[in-house]
Write a structure and sequence with these properties.
The protein has 3 domains: 80 residues, Orthogonal Bundle (Arc Repressor Mutant, subunit A), CATH 1.10.10; 93 residues, D-Maltodextrin-Binding Protein, domain 2 (3-Layer(aba) Sandwich); 107 residues, D-Maltodextrin-Binding Protein, domain 2 (3-Layer(aba) Sandwich), CATH 3.40.190.290. 39% of the residues lie in helices and 24% in strands. It contains 11 helices and 15 strands. A 5-stranded mixed β-sheet has the order 4-3-5-15-6. Strands 11-8-12-7-13 form a 5-stranded mixed β-sheet. The chain starts with a helix and ends in a 6-residue tail after the last helix. The model has no long low-confidence stretch (mean pLDDT 89). GO terms for molecular function: DNA binding; DNA-binding transcription factor activity. Keywords: DNA-binding, Transcription, Transcription regulation.
């Protein structure tokens, strides 16, 4: 029996409350995870989980095992990092969550990282919302804005940048917005984020050092909204209205003339970008390699660098 591997599966089941979720995270079948936990129970001579059709819950013995199991898994990972391949090169899979625009940017450039480290693999999760590292089995997560989970280690690595854009076809025959308030007369494609109410925030670059240059808010609206930024981007490119999008999505289109940048004198509100991970004593070499690569990518971009 692979004790460490089975303990890892047990800890994931305890965190997620689901055999199938852990199976999806680890790329195996649900019965395989169930067998691993069953083998651990047989080895220890105790029932660790209560199984039902609706939920998986820990027994008292299972709850008592959590802390020592995590300590043993962390110690094994530390030994691997200190000796052998784990010290010399990144080995294994890293599951990392990133915002959608950064995910496209990362996937376009990740071949250099994978070529450099032949035994490293990456499971990329692209999403517009902030999730849970523990519940989703993530090693790293890139977060734009406030990190609400105080238990996480947060490394600030850059800033977001976004531009207001539209196609020449949409703008044809319509008044060109000169000030943020002019957006009220246009169809704006709203990206629905959690807690978002369709308000766009701007700072006038021409008055940045004065009180008049402080942020102004504009409530925008239109006939189309979406909870995914790539959908907003496609709608904007399709000529359906004005959008506020990450520069990572629109820079090439602005350069080619496919999209026009609007309100260049007004900077859209920027958010800090953090790389987050759980507060474990030992950070795996493979995880550190992916984190360092992400930091380099962000710092190479003049619109994101600190």
């Amino acid at each position: 029996m692979d004790l460490i591997n089975n303990l890892q599966s047990f800890l994931r089941v305890a965190e997620t409350g689901s055999f199938s979720a852990v199976a999806a995270q680890r790329g195996v079948t649900q019965p395989a995870i169930s067998r691993q936990v069953g083998a651990l129970e047989e080895y220890l001579g105790a029932q660790l989980v209560q199984r039902s059709t609706q939920a998986v819950t820990l027994t008292e013995e299972g709850r008592n095992l959590l802390a020592p199991a995590q300590q043993l898994v962390d110690a094994a990972e530390g030994i691997r990092n200190m000796t052998g391949r784990g010290q010399r090169e990144p080995v294994g899979s890293v599951r990392v969550a990133v915002p959608v625009p950064l995910g496209f940017y990362f996937s376009d450039r990740v071949s250099s990282l994978l070529t450099c480290h032949g035994e490293l693999s990456i499971d990329l999760v692209m999403r517009d919302h902030v999730g849970s590292l523990v519940e989703e089995g993530l090693d790293l997560a890139v977060v734009a804005g406030t990190v609400e989970d105080s238990s996480l280690i947060c490394r600030r690595v850059g800033w977001t940048s976004s531009f207001v854009v539209a196609t020449p076809e949409y703008l044809a025959g319509r008044p060109l917005p000169r000030e943020p308030s002019d957006l009220a007369g246009h169809d704006c494609i709203v990206h629905r984020r959690r807690g978002s109410d369709g308000t766009w925030w701007f700072t006038d670059r021409r008055k940045a050092s004065t009180d008049e240059g402080r942020e102004c808010a504009v409530k925008v609206g239109g006939r189309l909204s979406a909870d995914n930024e790539s959908a907003v981007y496609r709608a904007a490119v399709g000529g359906h209205g004005i959008a506020n999008l990450s520069h990572l999505l629109v820079m090439d289109d602005i350069g080619s003339g496919r999209l026009c940048r609007l309100l260049p004198d007004h900077q859209c509100r920027r958010q800090p970008v953090y790389i987050t991970y759980t507060s474990r004593r030992h950070l795996a070499q493979r995880t550190r390699a992916v984190m360092d690569f992400l930091v380099e990518l962000i710092q190479e971009d003049p619109h994101m660098k600190l």
